[in-house]
Amino acid sequence: MTKRxxxxxxxxxxxxxxxxxxxxxxxxxxxxxxxxxxxGLALDRITDPAEARESVVELDTGLVDPSFVRDRLDEAEPExxxxxxxxxxxxxxxxxAQSIAEGGQAVPILVRPHPGTPGRYQIAYGHxxxxxxxxxxxxxxxxxxxxxxxxxxxxxxxxxxxxxxLTFIERAHFAAALVARGMARPTVGKALGVDKSELARLLAxxxxxxxxxxxxxxxxxxxxxxxxxxxVTLCREEGAEAALTAVAAAAHLPxxxxxxxxxxxxxxxxxxxxxxxxxxxxxxxxxQEASPMTVSRGPGRTVITIDTRTAPAFAAFVxxxxxxxxxxxxxxxx
Length: 334
Fold this sequence. Notes:
By secondary structure, this protein is α/β, with parallel strands linked by helices. The chain has 15 helices and seven strands. It folds into two domains: 1-16 and 27-166, no CATH class; 167-271, Arc Repressor Mutant, subunit A.
């Protein structure tokens, strides 16, 4: 039986009443499925003996800062009517805030004392819970632990890997941001839970896109690694300006539609360019007219033959000028 299941059974088990009879179950607070999932994923952490000994404190959300490296491409609500609520609030922040308002914050966030500002704190994981508490104007429950930069990003990465809700492009930008801060690639790979090959692909996408394109597209959860890699190639072939123009025109659309708009626009440009190149190589070339004149050389003579059937006028033209050509030649010799 897994640790998570044991922990859930401990939380949900019926307490024994005096005399050995089972007491009636406690009524459960209304909690949405997203919060239950987050709590379940975190049970391994909060029931770990080392972490269980750490006290949970309540912090003013105004004293808490996000991690020094961003792991999410936050979504703004698109203009117009969107039928799918997940497209309006793709990270589920509104639902999480409602869950906390109804049932409390079940799982604390992890913070460290801010390395640059005494009296403040910096988040290792739990950004969404922190933002939800900000929305509710209530303190956030947190565990405060001294962490260096490497320990912080490893904790942040483990949390993301446990939830598995970061999209491919968010993971790519998270990796690139860590490398840009001087983190060793093995540490970055460990934080993301990927091998060297996958880390190289993440960095290739993050570094291969035009600057500012990915934040404007957003999370794009339906666009996986192959399409992002192809988009990098299309941007390289068609230019950054074409990509940024396409995403600007799609700013009112949901994130997956923005990705599709940019991808399709660049793919159409590339297809048109290929067709133009193919047409240029297969276009019929002008047919050169065969010469009606042949020259044959033999011992002591050269014979010029003109086909009077195909070029009678040319034959007459040459015949009329032969004497003049010879005199011109002789004059040049003198």
